[in-house]
Amino acid sequence: MSINMKAPILSLILLFGLMGVWEMSTPSVKSAENMTEYEMLMGGASEEARVPPPSAIVTKAVEELSNPFYDNGPNDKGIGIQIAYSLYRVLTGYSMAALIALPLGFLIGMSPLAYKALDPFIQILKPISPLAWMPLALFIIQDSEASAIFVIFICSIWPMLINTAFGVAGVRGDWVNVAKTHELSTLRTAFQVILPAAAPTILTGMRISIGIAWLVIVAAEMLVGGTGIGYYVWNEWNNLDLTSVIFSILVIGVVGMLLDTFFSRVQTALQYQE
Amino acid sequence: MSQVSKPLINVQNLTRQFPSPDGEEPVTVFENASFEIQRGEFVCIIGHSGCGKSTILNILAGLDEASSGVVLMEDKEISGPSLDRGVVFQNYSLLPWMSALKNVMFGVRARYPSWSKSKVKEHAYKHLSMVGLGEGAEKRKPSQLSGGMRQRVSIARAFAIEPKLLLLDEPFGALDALTRGTIQDELIRVWDDTGQTIFMITHDVDEAILLSDRILLMSNGPYARVAESVVIDIPRPRSRADIIHHKNYYPIRNYLVDFLTSRSKNISVKAANCGDTRDLKPETVRPGLFKEPLSTSDAELKAVDINHSGLTQTQLTGAQ
Ligand SMILES: Nc1ncnc2c1ncn2[C@@H]1O[C@H](COP(=O)(O)OP(=O)(O)OP(=O)(O)O)[C@@H](O)[C@H]1O
Ligand SMILES: [Mg+2]
Fold first, then answer.
1. Nearest residue of chain A to residue B61 (CA atoms)
2. Do the beta carbons of residue B38 and residue B8 sit within 8 Å?
3. Are B281 and B233 spatial neighbours (Cβ–Cβ below 8 Å)?
4. Contact, B71 vs B78, CB < 8 A?
5. If one looks up domain B9-84+163-319 in CATH, what number appears?
6. With bands split at pLDDT 50, 70 and 90, how would you rate the model's confidence at B295?
7. CA-to-CA distance for B247 and B167, rounded, in angstroms?
8. Are B126 and B86 in contact (CB under 8 A)?
9. What is the helix (H) or strand (E) element at residue A107, kind and residue range?
């Protein structure tokens, strides 16, 4: 059996093994028919909050995913709607960051002067936790929605900026010479030689950025509240509904993986072998 | 190959200095290099590693600037790179994200921006076929091609832009002898078909004799000079197998090897001592004609004895 067939089987064994152990170690849940009304209200939990077993989470997942877009007012929206809000914020902030970081990174990479001049700013701004910007953003922008987007913007700009500059600066002199001997204009050189040459490095930066943005949005939405998957997690925690908390944690993981997979695909498509 | 017609390239008193690493006197790689290249001529330049061959070629290409002296092409001074001068770099310099065909099309499109895509493609394909690529190989990326194939793509790209002058920097340096032979033959065939002018760097004496009309000899650096211009008096077409049987082959070969092994070391020192080397053209030497009666038209060309080189005599005059 090839390793490609063995690996998924081993994954499944691990999954079911772990779920089995988890299931066994949590006290059994009463079936819904036997619950008192009070117990139903508490989401099937006893007075003491406890970690729900995997079976409860699977049930929850089936229930949520069969109707992901319902909207029963501010505190009860389907998981699909919450994810959509988060994705909207991430993609807006991320796109704005890309619009600035890619051209600016190009400039920095092409010009040693710009690199030297901007380097101190980048070095100081880069290590700031994106959430540290939140109070300032809320004060200046006066809008929680826009502040969340700003936080995404500020956290995704650095990896893209640095990788673009690095990729552009590292383009082999030989290829630039090829452009020169073919009398290519600066603009054509940038688009036909430097951009494709630096593309894999630039995409690495974009991939790191989207990963960070997805990490940060959860925390940002916990702070600003209202909508989004981060708010959802926090809200369910306040409701002591741990089943929903665990379910949404898994959803965050899956969406993050999908985002990463997308960028990894693009990266593979632009990768070249020297 | 008449020496009377106007040269395509006229190099006058070319000097290149690089700042020395310790901030003292700049290092003079070569000094007062002067030579000409005729239209349609195939000229090779030979010299020891580090004497400045690539530097000269880069200046001709417009990628580097001389510290002093000028290069004229059709009486106009060269400044900056131009599509009139195609370059084949030592390490092929293909763009790795493009297929072989796209690499050649890249050059064609730069040369003929007004052409339609199909015309560009056709022209590119024609030149790839000329170097024996096609039938599927053109669709592959450089990383999927062998070293020899990459070099052929690189040559095809340079020929496809139909430059007035083709500059080749040790194009076959990294190839095995067999592949080298095949591509040399292809290069000669394409050169024959197109009537290009070629300036090529090589380390290989036999390759230089096989390919060129004339070989420029460079002395060792620093203060290297283009010391001599050796005419290869062996009729074309030449073939690898037969050329060694030509009576001029070994006189020429021995002369070149003698230069590289012993005389190249001493020349720059002497040149430095003999003061003004400006406007000193490399001496034309015809080892193939040595001890042969000179024809009248060759009267001004000096045939030099391999063992008693006339060059050292000329150059020493004026010393001290
Ligand atoms: N950018 C540079 N800065 C300083 N010195 C340089 C630079 N480029 C070349 N040199 C020096 O100039 C000399 C000639 O270099 P060049 O590359 O022209 O040699 P070459 O004759 O082509 O040698 P090879 O046969 O090994 O390719 C070398 O001694 C090298 O150290
Ligand atoms: Mg060289």
1. A181
2. yes
3. no
4. yes
5. 3.40.50.300
6. very low
7. 30
8. no
9. helix A79-110
Q: How far apart are CA B2 and CA A268, in angstroms?
A: 56
* B242 contact partners, CB below 8 Å, separation of at least 6: none
Phi-psi region of B52 (alpha: psi -120 to 50; beta: other; left: phi over 0): left
Task: Identify which of A76, A49, A91 has the alpha carbon closest to the alpha carbon of residue A231.
Answer: A76
Q: If you search the block for the tokens 């060059």, which residue do you land on?
A: B311
Predicted local distance difference test score (pLDDT) of residue B306:
37
- Per-residue pLDDT band at B279 (split at 50, 70, 90): low
DSSP β-bridge partners for residue B36: B10
Q: Any idea which architecture A53-273 has in CATH?
A: Orthogonal Bundle (1.10)
Percent of chain A with pLDDT over 70: 92
How do B68-73 and B9-18 pair as beta strands? Answer: antiparallel
Q: Are A198 and A107 in contact (CB under 8 A)?
A: no
| B81 to A274: CB separation less than 8 angstroms, yes or no | no
Task: Spell out which residues of chain B touch residue A171, defining contact as CB-CB under 8 Å.
Answer: none
The verdict on ipTM greater than 0.90 is no
User: Which ligand has its closest atom nearest to the C-alpha of B29?
Assistant: 1
Atom 7, ligand 1: which residue's CA is nearest? B18
Distance B20 CA to ligand 1 centre (A): 12
- Do residue A273 and residue B143 have CB atoms under 8 angstroms apart? yes
Torsion of CA B221, B226, B231, B237, to 10 degrees: 70
Predicted confidence (pLDDT) per residue in A67-112, tens digit: 888 888 877 888 899 999 999 999 999 999 999 999 999 999 999 8
Q: What is the pTM of this model?
A: 0.81
Per the listing, tokens 């990729």 go with: A167
pLDDT digits (tens, 9 = 90+) for A26-38: 775 555 555 566 5
Size of interface A-B (CB pairs under 8 A): 55
User: Nearest CA of chain A to the CA of B120: how many Å?
Assistant: 15
Contact A228, A151 (CB under 8 A): no
User: What is the average per-residue pLDDT within B1-16?
Assistant: 79
* Helical residues (DSSP H) of B52-176, grouped into ranges: 53-61, 100-111, 117-130, 147-160
**A93 phi/psi in degrees, rounded to 5:** -60, -40
- Return the pLDDT at B173: 80
Q: Residues of A with CB below 8 A from B89's CB?
A: 174, 177-178
pLDDT tens per residue across span B208-247: 999 999 999 999 878 888 889 999 999 988 888 888 899 8
Question: Lowest-pLDDT range, A46-60, A208-222, A244-258, B166-180?
Answer: A46-60
B51 CA to centre of ligand 1 in angstroms:
7
Residue A178 to residue B161: CA distance in whole angstroms? 13
